[in-house]
Every structure is written in C-alpha cells, then in structure tokens.
Write a structure and sequence with these properties.
This protein is mostly beta strands and 181 residues long. It has 2 helices and 9 strands; from the N terminus they run E-E-E-H-E-E-E-E-H-E-E. Strand 2 and strand 3 form a beta hairpin.
Length: 181
C-alpha cells in the first residue's frame, strides 16, 4: 500500500464505448485526477482518456473531491475504489470531552473487507485514534496521478566575473606570473 496526498478532482466523462457484444453504447464514467484547478483537471482527464477513446467525448462534471488522500494498492485484483469516512478521536483539554473529526479517504481494494484491511494497514502505523465510520463502494473507474514533466536540465553556471579579474585555471591565485622573454 502507498498513499498520496494531493488535491483531487472527481470528473465524469461521457463517450461511446464498445461493449462486449460489439455494440456502441453511450456511457458516463467517473475518474479521479490529481490537479490544482478545474482547468488542469479537465486537461488531465482529456489527456488520460484520449488514448482509450476513439470518438467524441464530453466532460459532464468536475468537482473537488472530499478526500485529500488516496490509498493505492499493489495487488492486481484490487480493482474497485471505496470512499472511507474515518473519525479521528481527540480529547478536548478544556472540557475533557471526546471530540471526533471526520476525514475522508479513497481506498483501492477488491472488496469491502479488503478496503477495511487496507485502511487499518495504513492507519495502524500512526499514533492517531480513529474509528471507521463508513466505507462505501464508489463508481470511480480509475485514479490518475499527476506526473511532473522531466526536470529541466541544469543550465551551465554563468561566470559573472569580468575577464580581467579571472585567474587562469593552471595558476594558483596567490602566485604572480613570471614575465615571458
């Protein structure tokens, strides 16, 4: 399991999909993308889906996700996405009452028990007291992470020293050059 914290957007895309029986059918599918803005989310989903869709596609919905962290599974059979609502339990120092704050996660798993297992696996390594308030299967088909383009190559360092102040590479700076004959 690995987790990734980011700004996630839930997107819905409508297109004609080739069904198993060879018929074309209009479908609307939900995907999650890692983006900083609505515009970037739209661009990301179009870029990701354009290799899978041959015809026309339409983005029908984009909204910020209620979760900020996604738990990715390394197991191939984990092909569903579950939205987990966890309640973090803290004690208010003044009133000494238990306080619960809700936090949402998206979890990749094959089944509901698998999603619970994955949440416990990730959260078990933390010191936070929590309760799983709910886990529901979502209609999310896939999650696309943002991959930064390759880092630009480092530019050569500019030498801002005037030529008359530069020292020749072969001479140490504390020696005076001997006159040539």
């Amino acid at each position: 399991m690995r987790s990734r914290t980011s700004t996630w957007f839930e997107t819905k895309i409508r297109y004609e999909k080739m069904m198993d029986d060879g018929m074309q059918k209009k479908v609307t599918e939900q995907y999650v993308v890692d983006a900083l803005s609505f515009t970037e989310a739209e661009s990301a989903i179009i870029e990701e889906m354009s290799s899978y869709i041959s015809g026309e596609m339409k983005i029908t919905d984009i909204k910020p996700a209620s979760y900020g962290e996604v738990f990715f599974s390394d197991i191939d059979s984990d092909d569903k996405w579950y939205k987990a609502k966890l309640q973090f339990i803290t004690i208010d120092e003044k009133s000494e009452k238990e306080k619960r704050s809700n936090v949402y996660y998206l979890v990749q798993a094959a089944s509901l028990p698998g999603a619970v297992k994955h949440v416990d696996e990730v959260m078990g390594s933390t010191m936070i007291d929590y309760v799983i308030a709910s886990i529901v299967e979502t209609q999310v088909m896939d999650v696309f992470e943002h991959h930064a383009p390759n880092a630009p190559k480092k530019k050569e360092e500019r030498n801002d020293v005037p030529e008359y102040e530069e020292q020749p590479a072969s001479q140490p700076s504390d020696q005076v050059p001997e006159p040539e004959n």
